Amino acid sequence: MTSDQGTLVLSDGDIARALTRISHEIIERNRGADGVVLLGIPTRGVPLAARLGERLLAADGRGGDLNGIVGTIDITLHRDDLRSQPTRALTASRIPAGGIDEKIVVLVDDVLYSGRTVRAALDAVSDLGRPRAVQLAVLVDRGHRELPIRADFIGKNLPTARTERVQVRLSELDGDDRVVLHP
User: Fold this and answer.
1) Are 56 and 66 in contact (CB under 8 A)?
2) Looking at residue 94, which CATH number applies to its domain?
3) Is position 1 within any domain?
4) Which tens digits make up the pLDDT trace of 51-92?
């Protein structure tokens, strides 16, 4: 669908299917969900991590509390654009009770673009502990990397022009689920 409001890239059903597929890929790659910790990168990576956590627990056949596998990671002080961006409020990182040492940490974000946000998240993870491995799950990979960073789990590859803008809307924050490409 195309309109003056942009082009719909993913509907709510598409997002749900992508997250289900990503959760199964995480389980397959890591031979289960045991020892996997999901850390959402604010803002939209946080609800995406929670949704993935629910699917991981269900697909792996375990019940359980999301707080045991899902957390958030604040990257604010690790960003390389602090001088050029408006002041950002710090948000507390919330790490699952078992910590991240010797765990497989999956960083979760909505859009992978230049790779700078992920680089900041990697720096923040190293401040919190020493995971066995760090993986990256994103809903949309739009290309245009400035750093040698690649997602392990991708909902949709979306080649874009640098001038285009990808808008991710999630019901927890925006009232509905969709991804729209704006010229």
Assistant:
1) no
2) 3.40.50.2020
3) no
4) 999 999 998 777 778 889 999 999 988 876 655 665 566 778
